[in-house]
Each structure stands twice: as C-alpha cells, then as structure tokens.
Specification:
Rossmann fold; transcription; alpha/beta; LacI family DNA-binding transcriptional regulator; DNA-binding; 329 residues; 4-stranded parallel β-sheet; 434 Repressor (Amino-terminal Domain); 12 helices; elongated
Length: 329
C-alpha cells in the first residue's frame, strides 16, 4: 500500500494539494470546517508531514524553542501542553528549555540551541528580553506574559480579576490584606503587585506587601511567619503554588484557612480545585494564550517584521471557592 500524500488527500477530498498543505503549515488560511475535514482524512489515511523533507526544501527544521522558568510549577505544564498541540497543527515540534528560575542562565541556554530551531517562544522569561533576542540572532520570537516594544506577545491581564478578589475580601470584612509577592525579576509578579496595590487603594483596604518570594510551595511556606506578623486576616498570593505553601505554613503555626486567615491564589492550576478546602483563585485561559502565541509566531515566520510588535491580551476571572470567608471576630 502506497504511503498517503497531500496529492492523494487532495484527490480524495476534491480540493487542491496547496490547500491540503496549508491546512498543516498555515491553518489560519484554511476555513475551519475544511481544515477539520482535511485533518480527519489525514488521520484515517495515516498521513503525517515529513519534516525532514520540508527541512531540505525550505531550510526549516520544524523545531520551535520554548524557554520556561520552572516546569515544576503546575502552571507551565498546562501552557506547554497547549503550545505542543498548537505547534503540531502547524507541523512543528517543540524543543523545551527549563531555566530553573536562573535568569543568568537563560541567555546562555537559548544561544546553545538557536542553531537547531526555526524560532523561539519565551514564556515568562526572567532575563531582559532584549538580551535573549540578541542571543538568538535574527530568529522570529514571541513572548508570553511579557510585553517588550517591537516583540510580538500575548499575556494574561489580571487587573480586573485582582480588583474582584480584593472587592470580595472587602465584602467579607477584611481590612488588612497581606500580599505575598512573586520573584522580583518576574514581569507578571510586578504587574500583579501593582494591580493589588491599586485595587486596595481604591477600595480602602490596607495592603501589606510582604516582599518577593520564590514562585513555589517553599516560597509560600517562607512567607507564613511574615503573614502572621503582619496581623493580616487575608492573603493574596502571587500564584496558586505559593498559596498552597501559605496554607500549609499557617497550619503548621496553628492557624486555619479560612477560619483564621483567608487565602487567594492565582492561575487556577489543576490542584487548586483538588485541595481541601478548594482554593479561591484567579483563572486564566491558558490554552487560548498558547494558541495565540504560536499563531503570532507563525505570522512572523511567514510575514516577517510586518507582524512584529503585535500584543494580544487575555482576561482572567476571579473564582470564589473554599479558602475565603468572613473576617474572624
């Protein structure tokens, strides 16, 4: 039995071979219904794109480098899964780079692999993006959760959701709220802190910024004594993993959540709804962010600098669960 090709698929579906090719290499230019028909026919026929042949004809490897700061943080596997699915719809595979929160390593790491990939996606980079762009030469690049002039990016806009979280705590009677900040070199942490300070000021709540902590369970644990010293009755944590650590640290000090202290996280990672009580948090459309980042990247690959500098925001939403309650008497 002969191996299926774009020509046999085109003949089967009575469309042009170029349309079949675009369904894989540039899906945005093919109607959704038609693209789904092509992908279904390809799956049934056992067709898959031949990356090696494409590399010889186009000079492209079909690999996209993805830089992330910490794959052990549950937010990033969600994002990576979305990026993988979006990339494979464009016949691409990902080369994943974990900087382990070491900003000084990011430039070196991307420089080492820049010759192997067609382009890069920088997800929540800790280094200055200008340094990273310099390290990869003229390769196309998009950012996730970082805005840099001249660089295409997509990000989660948490401002309204954070305002909703602070308003929720105010409604419950909390007058002093502790902010457990994220890493000092995190653009997202800086934005969330600014949004929390603005929301607290507008709603007449005292916000005690406890400083920067690692975006990890241990970081949340480290912050628990400072939470107690602040005399706050509620906590806004940089992310869910930090919030888990805060809850555990407070429990170790004999305090209950939410009876003694309310806790709000951010990101709505899968474990947030599995803990007891379930974590009150801010949820983000991670899959949409991933799809948009890959789409921006391929627009850059195909159209060059004309597409550079596009910024696409996605709004998050506040979700009330079990770790917030009325201020204790």
């Amino acid at each position: 039995m002969e191996r299926p090709t774009i020509y046999s698929l085109a003949e089967q579906l009575r469309i042009s071979p170029s349309t079949v090719s675009r369904a894989f290499s540039d899906p945005g230019k093919v109607r959704r219904e038609l693209r789904e028909q092509i992908l279904l026919a390809a799956e049934k026929a056992g067709y898959y794109p031949h990356n090696a042949a494409r590399a010889l004809s186009t000079g492209r490897s079909g690999l996209v480098g993805v830089l992330m700061p910490d794959v052990t943080n549950p937010f990033f596997p969600q994002l990576l899964s979305g990026l993988i699915k979006a990339a494979r719809r464009r016949e691409a595979e990902l080369l994943f780079i974990d900087s382990a929160e070491a900003s000084q390593s990011e430039t070196r790491l991307v420089a080492r692999v820049q010759g192997q990939v067609d382009a890069f996606i920088f997800a929540s980079p800790r280094s200055p993006v200008e340094d990273l762009v310099s390290a990869i030469g003229n390769k196309p690049v998009t950012c996730i959760n970082r805005i840099v002039e001249g660089v295409s990016s997509t990000y989660v806009d948490d401002d309204d959701a954070i305002l909703g979280a602070v308003a929720h705590l105010r409604m419950l009677g909390h007058e002093r709220v502790a902010l457990v900040g994220g890493p000092s070199n995190s653009w997202t942490a800086q934005r969330r802190a600014a949004a929390a300070l603005s929301a607290a000021s507008s709603l007449g709540i005292e916000l005690v910024h406890l400083g920067s902590f690692p975006a990890s369970f241990d970081g949340g644990l480290q912050s628990a004594p400072a939470v107690v010293r602040s005399r706050a009755t509620a906590v806004l944590a940089f992310d869910d993993v930090s919030a888990f650590g805060v809850v555990s640290g407070l429990a170790a000090m004999g305090l209950h959540v939410p009876g003694d202290v309310s806790v709000v996280g951010c990101d709505d990672v899968p474990f947030a709804s599995m803990m007891t009580p379930q974590l009150t948090t801010i949820t983000a459309p991670v899959r949409q962010v991933a799809e948009a980042a890959v789409d921006l990247l391929y627009r850059l690959i195909q159209h060059g600098v004309a597409e550079a500098g596009t910024v696409i925001p996605f709004r998050s939403a506040f979700v009330v669960r079990g770790t917030t309650s009325a201020r204790p008497a």
